[in-house]
């Protein structure tokens, strides 16, 4: 296995000039290629902050974040934007689809920004919509899709550029149970069959039961990091 994410002594501090508040406090974290891992912990434990630091959406006050051995904390703002575009897929709690674009256009947008030619984009989009089982919804706008369908489109968008890994911040929080399980089925399948690396921030037990590694944060620190023996879903398949 190859190390995809390597965070060294990472801290994020607020109110530095008065009473410092550590959102993330001296965290060390390594994520290997092909992992299906979850950051868990109570609200305010630092899950989303750590995900944002790993994804280059925010910079740590101390420490470094290496993605495939590149220290992204040393990149300029423009180079960091370009790096995220080419290397990291994001799935957000609120979907973040562009309402005036169709599902297909939302997924295709990342590849357009990368300058990928249309014929290649078309093949990739068709493949992704088959994978998320929504080939019949490609020309539909987000407002006409259910929450679960919108989140599946968001997953396809995250995968469009063939990223090194996908960061998913509470991806099931706004979904009903059926939609959440369908989404998790798709992401689990992508992880197992295509070895796509997923790192979740979640408090959702449905996600935690699927994760094969559980990293628990409390007050900005990692207090446990364990490999799950098996998930409920995998037990049911035995």
From TrEMBL:
Alphabetized InterPro entries for the sequence: AAA+_ATPase (IPR003593), ABC_transporter-like_ATP-bd (IPR003439), ABC_transporter-like_CS (IPR017871), ABC_transpr_LolD-like (IPR015854), MacB-like_ATP-bd (IPR017911), P-loop_NTPase (IPR027417)
A molecular-function term among this protein's GO annotations: ATP hydrolysis activity
GO cellular component: membrane protein complex; plasma membrane
Domain of life: Bacteria
Annotated ABC transporter domain residues: 5-238
Record key words, sorted: ATP-binding, Nucleotide-binding, Transport
Name of the protein described by the UniProt record: Putative ABC transport system ATP-binding protein
Source lineage: Bacteria, Pseudomonadati, Bacteroidota, Chitinophagia, Chitinophagales
């Amino acid at each position: 296995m190859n190390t995809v994410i390597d965070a060294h002594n990472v801290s994020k501090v607020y109110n530095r000039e008065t009473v410092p508040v550590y959102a993330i406090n001296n965290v060390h974290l390594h994520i290997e290629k092909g992992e299906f891992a979850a950051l868990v912990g109570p609200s305010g434990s630092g899950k989303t902050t750590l995900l944002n630091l790993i994804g280059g959406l925010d910079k740590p006050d101390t420490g470094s974040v290496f993605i495939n051995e590149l220290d992204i904390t040393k990149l300029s703002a423009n180079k960091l934007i370009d790096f995220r575009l080419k290397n990291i897929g994001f799935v957000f709690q609120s979907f973040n689809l562009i309402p005036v674009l169709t599902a297909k256009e939302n997924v295709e947008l990342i590849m357009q920004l990368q300058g990928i030619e249309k014929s290649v984009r078309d093949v990739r989009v068709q493949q992704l919509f088959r994978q998320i089982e929504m080939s019949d919804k490609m020309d539909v706008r987000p407002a006409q899709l259910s929450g679960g369908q919108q989140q599946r489109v968001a997953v396809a968008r995250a995968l469009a550029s063939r990223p090194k890994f996908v960061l998913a911040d509470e991806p099931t929080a706004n979904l009903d149970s059926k939609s959440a399980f369908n989404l998790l089925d798709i992401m689990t399948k992508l992880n197992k069959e295509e070895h796509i690396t997923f790192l979740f921030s979640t408090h959702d037990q449905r996600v935690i039961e699927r994760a094969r590694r559980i990293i628990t944060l409390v007050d900005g620190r990692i207090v446990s990091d364990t490999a799950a023996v098996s998930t409920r879903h995998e037990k049911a398949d035995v």
